[in-house]
Amino acid sequence: MSSQQENNFSIIDKITGKDELKAQVTKLKEELSNTKSLIEGYKKQALKREDDARKAISSKQKAEERLNYCEKKIETLENEIIRLKEYQSSSLTFKSVEELKLNHFISLLNKVESVTSDSSSFITIYNKAGQIITEHEKYQEITTRLDKNIVNLISKIKSSTGIIIFHDIDKTLSEVLVPPFPINEDKLTIRSVFETSPIKTILGKEYNICILLISAGESFVGIGDVKEFLNFKIVKSSVKSKHSKGGFSQRRFERLRNEDIMHHVDKVIETYYSFEEQFKVDFDYVILGGEEQLLSILLERVNIKYPIIKKGIEINVEKHNIERILLSATSGRRYIL
């Protein structure tokens, strides 16, 4: 307590103890003043923090709005990229597609084999039967060697015998071959020559085959080798071709037509079994062609114990077409990129 404060207290105040109370009051007032100052300071801090919080919330909202805008923009651009890719992919086509008779196939391989390069720029890819190019065991490496558009185009090729790709990095030659008979392994080579020996080995073998073409009312079963038929038969049945307006009801017509088709399929199966039994031939392959729906029905009803090759053979079954049936069934295809 200061000397000035002591002078302010009277003798009576000292006797009664009032001076001590006054001193305590003064001290408390000082503490109260200090506390109020602290409170004011805290209030100012709180107000500043509230203001900062409001600013932070506002900034967060603006950031979220910007983020949403960017995300929508990215989504829009990604969709546009997908659309452009789909358009580009759909607009890509092969320069030409042609059927290759077996002798022409071998002749083409000889020409490809004779081409050489000064550098290792020739890529040869064998993609085995039963898979598309994206399932190749070295697909990742293939994507680094071939343009993506080319890979996408090749992946659209449907083949039950596999495919062979001959591609020159310098783009002097680029084509895909579908072989007449199945490829059994994946292969990728990058050399100064194209790798033709695997397919030439496949085509150089002797094959016993059965050709089975099925269509409503007229089908074909023939057995032999790649050069000629040992025997064949054209199987004919009466199958209703259309519904007559003045005849049966649509439902009854369809039922009777289905019965005709089943009867025809059974006759084809009977012929197949009779040839199998009569000639005691173990077929290397049974080549199937014809109407897809009838092929499905046939495969459900017949037990073919030999490897099957399905081909899109589009030939009318007639006696004067027998040689063409054999040529088509043992042909491959050529796609020029």
Record the SSE blueprint.
Layout lengths: L2 H6 L2 H6 L1 H74 L4 E5 L1 H13 L7 E6 L11 H7 L2 H7 L8 E6 L5 E5 L8 E5 L5 H7 L5 E6 L3 E7 L4 E8 L13 H30 L5 E6 L1 H10 L6 E3 L11 H8 L2 E5 L1
Parallel strand pairs: 6-9, 9-10
Antiparallel strand pairs: 1-11, 2-3, 2-5, 3-4, 4-11, 6-7, 7-8
Helix pairs in contact: 8-9
The total of helices stands at 10
Major beta sheet summary? 6 strands, antiparallel
**Helix proportion range:** 40-55%
User: In whole angstroms, how far apart are the ends?
Assistant: 106 Å
* Global structural class: alpha+beta
Strand order of the biggest β-sheet: 1-11-4-3-2-5
**3D shape:** elongated
Q: What's the architecture of the largest domain, going by CATH? A: 2-Layer Sandwich
What name is given to the CATH topology of the largest domain? Nucleotidyltransferase, domain 5
Summed over residues and divided by their number, the pLDDT gives a mean of 85
Task: Write a short abstract of this structure.
The protein is built from ten helices and eleven strands.
